[in-house]
UniProtKB/TrEMBL annotation:
PROSITE patterns: PROKAR_LIPOPROTEIN (PS51257)
Species assigned in the record: Dokdonia pacifica
Protein name: Lipoprotein
Domain of life from the UniProt record: Bacteria
Length: 294
């Protein structure tokens, strides 16, 4: 009897020991997979996919109640993997994965924070459907990121003078050879009507280093003048959207031009009018691209 009890106790200890080991192994495996999945979203698009459906896509995502508004990177097989990443303004990272491939007509993505589906339109652009983030309906817009034509979205918002309509107004920047960025496109989402508009606009975002005629305080040898300027008249629905957006700041320094733009750019003009309605817009200066690559 004692021998039987002894064997049962030993067996019980062995089982408990295995259970703890399995839990630790499972936890370690999950952490490793999460780390690998994060690393498997490239920082730079593969040049071989510049003219194919495969590749990286950059854009923004917003819930219809405007409570969640962030940038999103979509990886459609650029390195053989199919996933997406959202890095929030408070540095939380959301990863979404898909078991589909570029050969499928619809690619379904899911993660701990939500789900969405992606499909290609006739012009090979990407369309999002059934977007759910934090149990709320959302919309997302992305643009193809190419090795020679990077896409860098920045978050913005707008409201009418009477606050009857509000929404998001996201610029997308692309670097040029003139030490700055061109504003290539804008996404406008109107939450009251749950409508999204993608507009081709013109504009630029530049940094001028010790520019002639730029006033520099006595004793300061260099200056960086950051400037965003966009003025457009573009079709939007049944009327033209007229808007002007100008933001700038002079950064005086003795150590040369700064790579990063100031987070307190002075927005001097941010007016828009459309279909008899007028208002103002703004941009999150912390989400602007920097000049470290110039």
């Amino acid at each position: 009897m004692k021998r039987t009890l002894f064997m049962m106790c030993c067996l019980g200890i062995t089982i408990i020991s295995c259970s703890v080991d399995e839990e630790a192994t499972t936890s370690t495996t999950e952490d490793t997979l999460t780390t690998l999945e994060t690393q498997l979203i490239p920082d730079f698009p593969n040049p071989e996919n510049d003219y194919t459906r495969q590749g990286l896509y950059q854009g923004t995502i917003v819930t219809q109640d405007l409570s969640f508004h962030e940038k999103i990177t979509l990886n459609l097989g650029d390195n053989g993997f199919y996933n997406a990443r959202i890095i929030t303004s408070d540095n939380q990272q959301y990863i979404f994965k898909s078991q589909n491939t570029i050969e499928d007509s619809v690619l379904d993505f899911e993660g701990d924070q939500g789900t969405f589906s992606v499909q290609f339109l006739d012009d090979n652009s990407v369309s999002f459907t059934n977007v759910i983030i934090h149990n709320k309906e959302a919309v997302a817009t992305v643009f193809k990121d190419q090795s020679f034509q990077r896409m860098m979205p920045s978050l913005g918002s707008f409201s009418s003078t009477d606050n009857a309509i509000t929404g998001t107004w996201d610029f997308t920047f692309s670097p040029t050879s003139s030490l700055g960025y061109s504003i290539t496109t804008t996404t406008i989402f109107i939450n009251q009507n749950s409508e999204t508009f993608v507009l081709d606009i013109s504009g630029n975002y530049q940094r001028l280093c010790s520019a002639p005629g730029t006033p520099v305080p006595i004793g300061v040898v260099n200056s960086s003048f950051f400037n965003i300027q966009s003025s457009n008249n573009v079709p939007l629905g049944n009327s033209d959207l007229n808007f002007t957006f100008v933001a700038n700041r002079l950064e005086a320094t003795n150590v040369g031009c700064l790579d990063q733009p100031s987070t307190d750019l002075n927005i001097t003009i941010a007016n828009w009018s459309w279909n008899g309605i007028s208002g103002t817009s703004t941009v999150d200066t912390s989400s602007l691209p920097d000049f470290s690559g110039f």
